[in-house]
Every structure is written in structure tokens, then in C-alpha cells.
Amino acid sequence: MKLTIGHLYPDLLNLYGDRGNIQCLKMRLVWRGFDVEVRRFCIDDRVDFSDLDIVLLGGGSDREQMIVCRKLQQIQKDFRDYVEDGGTTIAVCGGYQLLGHYYNTPEGKMEGLHLADLYTEQGSPRLISNIVLKNDRYPYPVVGFENHGGRTHLGEGVEPFGKVVFGYGNNGKDHEEGVIYRNVIGTYLHGPLLPKNPHVCDDLLLRALRRRGYEGTLQPLDDHEEREANAYIVKRFAGLSDS
């Protein structure tokens, strides 16, 4: 079985180590014997979502986001159809903000994709911190680093990516971070996210594989170093064990 990963606009949304997320997705498939192709789509390229199994939308400055948001409006219907059909997506920082209805900045209001019920307002100061999340869908806490000026607010009934144990999260007030909608994860966590959290990576991969008809489980990999790093961060910043 083959999966195709689409990296949207890496020529503009490239601030937060998103290539590390792509590499993590790719290699955890290769190590298990799956075929994988990575396609980079720059700003002038046509995106055919029917060929894609996982989409990554990364982070960039407000200037780059403004350019990308205009392009995203042209593919909004195709992107929404992909998401509603169960397409797997991970959107980081600026990409996360663009999943919602809008991102309001002093330079102007960016129209979002309206894929998830959320909106973002720019605030001050920037929210910068290591961060630890808990979510019962994952066997371990989720760790990362956040650095964002946006304050994101979720709509009623929208599931966050996790509850904040340490750090700021979406807006520094409601103790929630990110969003989960269908097979979409939006988050402010970078560093990059997936190499620090292979359990999140495998969840995304299994969702993409099952959409293609795969009925098996994922072969376990030797993640002891990743687990130790995760446990160290959780204990240092949240004072918790990883159990």
C-alpha cells in the first residue's frame, strides 16, 4: 500500500521545522514497509487533493500567511471536500489559524478556510513556552514548543487537540490547545511536533491508511529514545510521570 503526503506551500510556510514532520511521517511508513511519496506544492502549483492521503500546512509570518490565504480561497472547496471525506491533515501555527473562519491582525483580516469552527485575534505579548498536553486518545502526553501572537478561540462543541498541563495553549486563558476535527489536527506546537510525539504521528498514519482500506495495525517501532525524551519534558515542566 502506498500513501501520498502533500506539503502545501513550503516556499512560504516554512518557519517551524515542518520538514521534520514530513520526514517523520515518511520514515515511520518506510520502516514498516509501506510505499510513500512526498509532493511539494509551491504557491503557483495546482493541488489535486484526490491524489493525497495526508496534507501538511505549516507556519509562516503574517506576511506569508496573507499571500497563502488568498491562494487557499481558490482551493477552499476542494480542501473542504477532502477533509469531509476523511482526509488526514496536520496544520501547524499559521496553518492552524488558517483552518478557521478568520485571523484578525493589525495589517488586515485574513479569510480562513472555514474548515473548523474557530477564529483567531492577534494579541500581545507573544505566548512563548514549552508546552505539555493531555488527551485521552493518546497513550502519552503531547509535548512541544509554542511561539505565537494569535489568540485562537474554538466554537461550541469543537474538540481541542489537548488540555494544557503546562504552557499557554490557544489563548492563555481556557487551558485548551489546538483543534481536532474529523481527521484534522490543528496546533501551535512545533519544534517539530511529530518527532517529539511518535504516538501522534502513528495515529495520523493509521487514519490515513484506514481511509485507503487498510485493516491491520501498525508494527511497533523502537521508540524508547523518543519516549524517554517525552517523559523528561513532561516531568521537567509539568512534574508528571508519563503513565
From TrEMBL:
<dbReference type="GO" id="GO:0008360">
    <property type="term" value="P:regulation of cell shape"/>
</dbReference>
<comment type="similarity">
    <text>Belongs to the CobB/CobQ family. GatD subfamily.</text>
</comment>
<keyword id="KW-0573">Peptidoglycan synthesis</keyword>
<dbReference type="GO" id="GO:0004359">
    <property type="term" value="F:glutaminase activity"/>
</dbReference>
<keyword id="KW-0315">Glutamine amidotransferase</keyword>
<protein>
    <recommendedName>
        <fullName>Lipid II isoglutaminyl synthase (glutamine-hydrolyzing) subunit GatD</fullName>
        <ecNumber>6.3.5.13</ecNumber>
        <ecNumber>3.5.1.2</ecNumber>
    </recommendedName>
</protein>
<feature type="domain" description="CobB/CobQ-like glutamine amidotransferase">
    <location>
        <begin position="4"/>
        <end position="197"/>
    </location>
</feature>
<dbReference type="GO" id="GO:0009236">
    <property type="term" value="P:cobalamin biosynthetic process"/>
</dbReference>
<dbReference type="Pfam" id="PF07685">
    <property type="entry name" value="GATase_3"/>
</dbReference>
<keyword id="KW-0436">Ligase</keyword>
<keyword id="KW-0961">Cell wall biogenesis/degradation</keyword>
<dbReference type="InterPro" id="IPR033949">
    <property type="entry name" value="CobQ_GATase1"/>
</dbReference>
<dbReference type="GO" id="GO:0009252">
    <property type="term" value="P:peptidoglycan biosynthetic process"/>
</dbReference>
<comment type="subunit">
    <text>Forms a heterodimer with MurT.</text>
</comment>
<feature type="binding site">
    <location>
        <position position="126"/>
    </location>
    <ligand>
        <name>substrate</name>
    </ligand>
</feature>
<dbReference type="InterPro" id="IPR029062">
    <property type="entry name" value="Class_I_gatase-like"/>
</dbReference>
<feature type="active site" description="Nucleophile">
    <location>
        <position position="93"/>
    </location>
</feature>
<dbReference type="GO" id="GO:0140282">
    <property type="term" value="F:carbon-nitrogen ligase activity on lipid II"/>
</dbReference>
<comment type="pathway">
    <text>Cell wall biogenesis; peptidoglycan biosynthesis.</text>
</comment>
<dbReference type="GO" id="GO:0016740">
    <property type="term" value="F:transferase activity"/>
</dbReference>
<keyword id="KW-0133">Cell shape</keyword>
<keyword id="KW-0378">Hydrolase</keyword>
<feature type="active site">
    <location>
        <position position="190"/>
    </location>
</feature>
<comment type="function">
    <text>The lipid II isoglutaminyl synthase complex catalyzes the formation of alpha-D-isoglutamine in the cell wall lipid II stem peptide. The GatD subunit catalyzes the hydrolysis of glutamine to glutamate and ammonia. The resulting ammonia molecule is channeled to the active site of MurT.</text>
</comment>
<dbReference type="InterPro" id="IPR011698">
    <property type="entry name" value="GATase_3"/>
</dbReference>
<dbReference type="InterPro" id="IPR043702">
    <property type="entry name" value="Lipid_II_synth_GatD"/>
</dbReference>
<dbReference type="GO" id="GO:0071555">
    <property type="term" value="P:cell wall organization"/>
</dbReference>
<keyword id="KW-0808">Transferase</keyword>
